[in-house]
Amino acid sequence: MLPNKEKLEEIVKELQKIMRIQDWDIEIEYIDKYKMKHLFDSFDTAMLCERYRLRKEATIHVNVDHTALDEMWYESIVHELYHVVIGDITDMADDLMDELDVNEIVTRQKKQLSEIIVVNLAKVFSSIYPVTNFINKEVE
Known about the structure:
The chain has one domain. It has five helices and three strands.
């Protein structure tokens, strides 16, 4: 079950240390499915990360109405944090693709591959650092 916002913020701080992104200011925003639809044109998105690389700031929007978060919230938050981790690489790829004026297929493939990487990294991380490491302990 998705923890309250304060607990999730504590968990994210701990995860940031492990992922070596503790120098980022990461905000968690709990929103409903209608705000998710309004902001990102999708009812079916569980979480979404917006990053601001130059300021080292990110906001993770959590769709509290999404039913998958009952069981998958931890892997989902790790997934979004990995978007911060690999963000510089994907930004560089986007800049190069813009400069080279690549076609839609290349753009779509880059997006799909970066999602596959993030999904796989989140699965591996979640198995090495299970949610019980964070949910059952008091954060220092």
